[in-house]
Amino acid sequence: MRVKLYPNSDNPLHFHKSYTQEVKATDGTVCIKLKGGERTFLKSGDSFLVEKSIPHAVINPSQVPIEYEITCRPGQANIEKGYRLKFELENQDIKPTLLDDWLLMDLRGTYPIGFRYKVFAKLKTIFLFKWMLYKRLDQLEKKVRPQFNTFHESQASTGDLESG
Fold first, then answer.
1. HSE of 49 in the Cβ direction (CA atoms, 13 Å)?
2. Domain that holds residue 59
3. Does residue 99 sit in the same domain as residue 46?
4. DSSP 8-class letter at 125
5. Which CDD domains does the protein's record reference (predicted)?
6. Which of 44, 73, 102 is the last residue of a domain?
């Protein structure tokens, strides 16, 4: 799956429990930040394998958009849907709620580091909370539906994703 990350964009430190993630730079310099502060810079063609449960973040340190590919092993059923919704909300300047963030992270099999993760992990064990999360997923899909469907159909063959 390809991702476009806009200038000075990043994501918080997080980890994936059930898959490894390979990040391969395709256009521009991609920075992988690890929990201890270590940074690895990837130029076009370079790749970095993030093992399961290793805290990391992908950062665009430049002033121009960058592109990279993500490969998850083993593949995950909802990861692409989670990324598409996340990026469509950003592209449409829709500020996600904390619940939205949790839902989209859950779809992507992504877990933030620290207290937020602990709270989310506890809440997820409650049936009513799970029901509420997926009810909210329906609402998010309807909120971004016109753009999401157009974006999804036009990008489906290449798997392109954009984050703004």
1. 5
2. 2-73
3. no
4. T
5. cupin_RmlC-like (cd02208)
6. 73
